[in-house]
Amino acid sequence: MNQSLSQRCHAYVSEHFAREDETLRYVRQQTAARGLPQISLEPNEAKLLHLLVRLCGAARVVEVGTLAGYSGICIARALPDDGQLITIEVSSLHAEVARAHFEYAGLADKVTVLQGAGVDVLPKLAADAPYDFMFIDADKGNYHNYLAWAADHLRIGGVVMADNAFWGGGIFDPKSDDDHAMVAFNLSLAEHPRFDSTIIEVGDGIAVGVKTC
Ligand SMILES: C[S@@+](CC[C@H](N)C(=O)[O-])C[C@H]1O[C@@H](n2cnc3c(N)ncnc32)[C@H](O)[C@@H]1O
To answer: pLDDT per residue over 106-116, tens digit each?
Structure first.
């Protein structure tokens, strides 16, 4: 597909399937207004996340990398009434802003924000495994650790999803540590004996794997 057709297709999907509602627009505006990095998922990526959570019937979800709660709102909206999202965020400011946004979205009863580094917090969640879905969107250098955690703590049929699989193209000519980390993560997922996986060409690349054994 040529680039202009691909851009038209992207715009078409955005317009008809992934339009932001008032709450998501507010969260995006507040993310900028509070001086947080404007690196929340794009609407098309967020809609895919929402749909995958719903498709796999997930009720118990873990996210690493909350930021201001944009992706968390899209996850929580796909959960059943008794569903729960646990989302982990290293920055106390981001965690505080996200909690306010989950309140604003009317989802505070479904979402727990745990402040801390993913590698420190995840072991504390192990006792309540298995989980149905894990979304990884934080420090690239630990993506391999998050994948290992998903392999051990998702149910069979559970889904791991990770943003930035293409890392802005850095995977094709890796130079930085993060470039190399994403190359290693992608190849590890592709070859993983416990996941059936691919990368969906949306946004910066969404890696998705279903746990098979
Ligand atoms: C790309 S943003 C997440 C965007 C969010 N998922 C969304 O789409 O709305 C990455 C977030 O991960 C957080 N983060 C970075 N390193 C982390 C770590 N080791 N553990 C947990 N969170 C981390 C950052 O502070 C930042 O808020």
So the answer is: 999 999 999 99
Look at residue 31 in the predicted model and tell me its pLDDT.
98
Q: CATH number for the domain including 79?
A: 3.40.50.150
Which residue is closest in CA terms to ligand 1's atom 4?
40
The strand pair at 60-64 and 84-89 is best described as parallel
Residues 102 and 5: their CA atoms lie apart, in Å, by: 37
Distance (angstroms) between ligand 1 centre and the Cα of 1 equals: 33
Parallel/antiparallel/unpaired status of strands 206-211 and 111-115: unpaired
User: For ligand 1, is residue 70 a contact (CB within 6 Å)?
Assistant: yes
Domain that holds residue 142: 3-211
pLDDT 10s digits, 80-90: 999 999 999 99
